[in-house]
Every structure is written in structure tokens, then in C-alpha cells.
Specification:
Blueprint lengths: L3 E10 L6 E11 L4 E5 L6 H8 L7 E6 L2 E2 L5 H11 E5 L10 H11 L4 H14 L15 H13 L5 E5 L7 H16 L4 E5 L3 H4 L4 E6 L2 E7 L4 H15 L2
Parallel strand pairs: 3-8, 3-9, 6-7, 7-8
Antiparallel strand pairs: 1-2, 1-4, 4-5, 9-10
Helix pairs in contact: 3-4, 3-5, 4-5, 5-6
Length: about 250
């Protein structure tokens, strides 16, 4: 079985004549170490897909399975525990706590899971070193650049050793250079550290860092592309496919 699998995943908001189908019977498989980008026009269901995979919302129909565990069978407490231990989240806005330094921010998921402050900080410092912030442990968010803040957020997402990283427009608030660095780091998360990464992005250049791109339109998967690692060439391919599906 794939590490992540969705089966006929559907999300409908509202009912009757006002019902809106945000996601329509989506079937997707993601393997360990795979970096997938999700693209498509605004309102096509990209963020809805991410929220359902991450257990942040419940589907109207269908199922999400993560590491052999079906999310629809879990009560809220068990679902929260799975999110803490199996899934790391990275968002466009870094969501760091201003009064905490980098180590303290990165350690938060472990503290919430009942691990001691000392052990949490030690593991957080290790991950900060891995993401290139070995000399910024004690810096608060206002002392870090946007790219550095996103690295802290990625360390925080990885600190609990999850099997899956979900990234929602992770470069949307960054300049071009920092965007490329973060996209490259997410590729490293998949290729070298063996996590599955699912990233929503509107930027073909950033999507080109992925190993596979899934294109959504009107809540359905309408195309896929397997990439070869040549980011510049792939960006042109991605742009072409986006035009074809009507973005």
C-alpha cells in the first residue's frame, strides 16, 4: 500500500441548489520519498485536497489513508494525535510565535506531545542544523529573514519525525532567491530524508522542483507530469500544461 492514498475523495460545501463541489472523487497515491506539487486554477480544490489529506477537514465522501491508517475511522482526539506525529505542516505565512526563538518555535510539536523541554529543544536544534540554521538557534522571528523563518517552520514540521509534509504555497511570501532555496530544501526533505512531500503552488518554477505534478481543475485531477529534475526545462513544461487546462 502507498504511504498516502485517497480513494474517491470528495468535499461538498453547502446543500441543495447552493451546494458547491470543491473536490470530486479524487484518487491519489503518494510514496515515501516522493515530492508532489499540486497545481491548477484558483478555486480548483488544491487547498481543499491538502486540508483533507492533513485531517484538517472531513470529506463528504471517500477516504484518506496515511501510513496504513484510515482517517475517517478516527475520533477527533486520535486524529489530532496522528497529525502531531505523522504529518508536518508548512504554510505561506510562517506562523512562528514572535516571543520565542528559533529553537523554541521548532520544538513546539514535541512539547504539545508531552516530551520534556530539554529533549524537545535538543531535537529542534538538530533539525535547525539540518535545514541550514545551525547558527540561528537563539534568534527570534523578527531577527530572521523570510527565508530563514520558513526554514524554522520546516524544522518545526520535521521535528516529530513525520512521514508526510504538507506545504501550502510555502514560497508565496518569499523573494525569488529564497523561494528557490525553500523549494530545493523541500526536495531534499523527500529525496534525502525520505518523507513524502505534497506541496500546493501556483508558481511553475517552484513546481518544477517536484518529482511529480498533479493538475486539478473543477475539483478533479485532469493531468499529471513526471519530472526529470531539470528545473529550468520543467518550468516551461509546467507552464504549458497550466495553459492547456485553462489557468
Amino acid at each position: 500500500m502507498s504511504l498516502i492514498q485517497t480513494s474517491n475523495l470528495t468535499k461538498v460545501y453547502g446543500s441543495g441548489e447552493t451546494a458547491v463541489t470543491a473536490l470530486d472523487h479524487v484518487n491519489l497515491k503518494v510514496e515515501a520519498g516522493e515530492f508532489i506539487a499540486v497545481m491548477g486554477p484558483s478555486g480548483c480544490g488544491k487547498s481543499t485536497l491538502l486540508h483533507l489529506i492533513g485531517g484538517l477537514d472531513r470529506p463528504s465522501e471517500g477516504q484518506v489513508t496515511i501510513d496504513g491508517q484510515a482517517l475517517d475511522h478516527l475520533e477527533d482526539t486520535a486524529l489530532s494525535e496522528l497529525r502531531r506525529r505523522k504529518i508536518g505542516f508548512v504554510f505561506q505565512f510562517f506562523n512562528l510565535i514572535p516571543v520565542l526563538n528559533a529553537t523554541e518555535n521548532a520544538a513546539l510539536p514535541l512539547l504539545l506531545d508531552g516530551i520534556s523541554q530539554a529533549k524537545s529543544n535538543t531535537r529542534a536544534a538538530e533539525w535547525l542544523g539540518k535545514v541550514g540554521l545551525g547558527d540561528r538557534h537563539q534568534h527570534r522571528p523578527d531577527q530572521l529573514s523570510g527565508g530563514q523563518q520558513q526554514r524554522v517552520a520546516i524544522a518545526r514540521a520535521l521535528v516529530a519525525e513525520p512521514v508526510l509534509i504538507l506545504a501550502d504555497e510555502p514560497t508565496g511570501n518569499l523573494d525569488t532567491r529564497s523561494s528557490d532555496e525553500i523549494a530545493g530544501l523541500l526536495r531534499k526533505v523527500a529525496e534525502e530524508w525520505g518523507r513524502a512531500v505534497v506541496m500546493v503552488t501556483h508558481d511553475p518554477r517552484i513546481a518544477a522542483y517536484a518529482s511529480r505534478i498533479v493538475f486539478l481543475k473543477d475539483g478533479k485531477i485532469v493531468d499529471e507530469a513526471i519530472l526529470d529534475g531539470k528545473n529550468g526545462k520543467n518550468a516551461e513544461l509546467v507552464s504549458g500544461k497550466i495553459k492547456q487546462i485553462g489557468d
